[in-house]
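R.M. (postdoc): so does anyone remember the format we settled on? I'll just put the structure tokens first.
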């Protein structure tokens, strides 16, 4: 039953994405260094990313603001994930070392507030940041993917839909 679904139990195979991909190849292809300092000018309503790897995974770079610091973070866009996850490497850059994996962390992604979870250490995506349907839904994302040219464009509303804020995707669909 969908009401019993627990997002922390979500897992999927991402064996084609390695840590060094985030720091090297993806940074080069996206044109932004992973975990580099970000500026307000980078917080866009439109994000352009790439299709990467053997499985044409959708990657974008977004700013993550936490504890008054802002970094550029690469996210795998995963419409199969009901939650947005941030990996421990990212949180370590914000000097967050004692993290309860069951507690949500409130961050701003491209100047839009969202509650995220830590990528579970025992999952197969422990080293990857996932942009889930919670963020996409709340901020009315429009997604265009061009498989021939290997890019993705996402547009977001500036503020959340008040009818959707604080609700799960399942609740909003009912």
């Amino acid at each position: 039953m969908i009401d019993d679904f627990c997002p922390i139990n979500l897992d999927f195979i991402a064996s084609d994405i390695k840590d060094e991909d985030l720091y090297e190849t993806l940074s080069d292809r996206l044109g932004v260094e992973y975990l580099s300092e970000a500026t307000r000018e980078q917080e866009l309503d439109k994000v352009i990313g790439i299709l990467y790897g053997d499985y044409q995974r959708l990657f974008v770079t977004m700013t993550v603001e936490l504890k008054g610091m802002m970094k550029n973070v690469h996210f795998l866009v995963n419409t199969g994930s009901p939650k947005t996850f941030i990996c421990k490497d990212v949180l370590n850059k914000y000097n967050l070392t004692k993290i309860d994996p069951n507690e949500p962390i409130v961050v701003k992604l491209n100047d839009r507030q969202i509650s995220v979870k830590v990528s579970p250490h025992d999952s197969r995506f422990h080293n990857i940041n996932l942009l889930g349907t919670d963020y996409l839904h709340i901020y009315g994302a429009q997604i265009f993917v061009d498989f021939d040219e290997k890019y993705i464009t996402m547009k977001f509303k500036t503020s959340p839909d008040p009818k959707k804020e604080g609700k799960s995707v399942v609740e909003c669909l009912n």
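R.M.: ...and that's the designed sequence above, right after the tokens. Also worth knowing: Residues 1-8 have pLDDT under 50 and may be disordered. Helices lie at 19-23, 25-30, 88-93, 133-138, 169-173.
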